[in-house]
Amino acid sequence: MSGHLLIVDDEPNIREVLRIVLDGEGYSVSEAATYAEAMQLLGQTSFDLVICDIFLPDGNGLDLVRSYHASNPNTHFVVVTAHSTPAHAMTALRDGAVEYLSKPFDVEELKLVVAKQMMRPPSELVLTGPLEFIGRSRAMRPLLERIPQVARSDATVLITGESGTGKELLARAIHMASPRAGRLFVPVNCGALPEGLLESELFGHVRGSFTGAVRDKRGLMQEAHLGTLFLDEIGDVSANTQVKLLRALQERRIRPVGDNREVDVDVRVLAATNQDLQRRVKEGLFREDFYYRINVIHLHVPPLRERREDIPELARHFVVRGCARLGIETKLIHRDAMSVLEHCLWPGNVRELENVIERTVAMEPSPLITVSSLPRSLLGAEAQDAQRAAAPSLPEDGLDIEAHLDGMRRELMRQALERCGGVQKDAARLLRMTYRAFRYHAEKFNLMTEE
After folding, report:
1. Under CATH, to which class is 4-118 assigned?
2. Mean pLDDT split into 10-residue runs, the chain, 451 residues
3. What residue segments make up the domains of the chain, in order of their start?
4. pTM above 0.70, yes or no
5. Residue 300's closest CA among 117, 93, 77, 150?
6. Does domain 315-390 match CATH 1.20.1090.10?
């Protein structure tokens, strides 16, 4: 086994033990005792894996992960520390580390951890071609790294995210990486069909089962047999259809509308929604048993504003594709125009960016896309007007401002707790609140968690 490793630890004994062990495994090992030494070595040499202590004499190992990993995503970091806390673990993994270990660690376990990371090929994390699912950013990396494991499974997957983030493209990527790739991928927009028609589309019907049923029709679940069924906008499915889908997923059998016979089906189901299904379950608007049946594996696609590093590559990709469709030479994007694209809010996410690029490519006669080539809605006063339009507005009959602000406070606190792994002190720091004030409002809003 080969690979170049860097050990960053201020304790000579730790470095010596790790070097001896990892030398014995066939790795090339370098050492650094301080943050400055580590940065110097990282600037001079390419490493496959860095094993880094958090507390260094002249800096913090987590800062090393943040500063280096952002521009060198193919270098993996394993963070180790003698002062292990859940907050440190969450921060390390969120900022790019692939593993977190507490001291003292078992040498055999460490060897397995290193071997596991060295077996992973450097990941470009770009699924291009027909999938067009592009993402190199830190926000996308954990999601895309899960695709191979999710694809190997046959479990039902729930994909969440705002409209236009690419949920269907992620579903197609999972299908294409799965053993079912040679079979059909069948998408269904559940929100676009009324209840009766959706049931007929999914399960099929027999002739005469309802007005207009002039012949037997196979349902889409049968069409997707041995392949993948993608249920988009699953949150819009009625309670009655949820019951029938639940039974179909559990029994792997369906009954066409108006038929007495059941048909065996073998489909892998991927579902997607831009709604908060947990909240809808609590409100009684979505069946709890069906929610848990489709949420075996949960994947969340971040909005474009949280993955701005992906905008240049996405923009260039859409330019290349748009020019190819028009049969013209590929245009270039000026750096100032790219800066404008990177700083836009993109409420419509990747779909909105795609539409802007498509329009720009079609309307720009020159081979260079400049700031003036972009739609005026992205620039100046019109952009400010758009931001004002997105701001909260006062209803005609007024509102209870204290209740409104409490609702906003509760939601932001919930998000902060989720982002910080339930650690209230970290969530309070994220919201610039005192710990005492955070605990008071957490109790008030029933957001209490164990520290």
Report:
1. alpha beta
2. 84 89 89 91 87 87 79 79 65 70 77 76 40 70 86 94 92 92 92 84 79 77 93 93 92 85 92 94 93 95 91 93 93 87 90 94 90 77 46 72 84 84 82 84 76 48
3. 4-118, 133-300, 315-390, 401-444
4. no
5. 150
6. no
